[in-house]
Design a protein that fits this description.
Elements (H helix, E strand, L loop, with lengths): L1 E2 L2 E2 L20 H11 L11 H17 L2 E3 L2 E3 L4
């Protein structure tokens, strides 16, 4: 059980507050039953948005080329 990214011990007297995250490792019907009581299911995803990733790499490369520092007679570019 997590509350504000801090692990809490699970005990019979532990109170569950709004925003707490419970990790339940059970079959799908059991998880749906618990979520129906009062909560949402946050399922992990393995999908990657490759367009956004490629765009970020491209923008970072352009920014790196724009940030040059002359040292003596050399042009220093981040990543070189």
């Amino acid at each position: 059980m997590l509350r504000r990214a801090e692990k809490l011990p699970v005990a019979p007297d532990t109170e569950i507050h709004r925003g707490d995250m419970l990790n339940i490792h059970r079959p799908e019907p059991a998880v749906s039953h618990v979520a129906a009581l009062d909560g949402n299911v946050a399922r992990p995803t393995l999908n990657t948005n490759f367009f956004a990733l490629g765009l970020a790499i491209f923008a970072g490369a352009l920014l790196g080329l724009a940030l040059t520092s002359p040292v003596g007679g050399l042009r220093i570019v981040p990543g070189s």
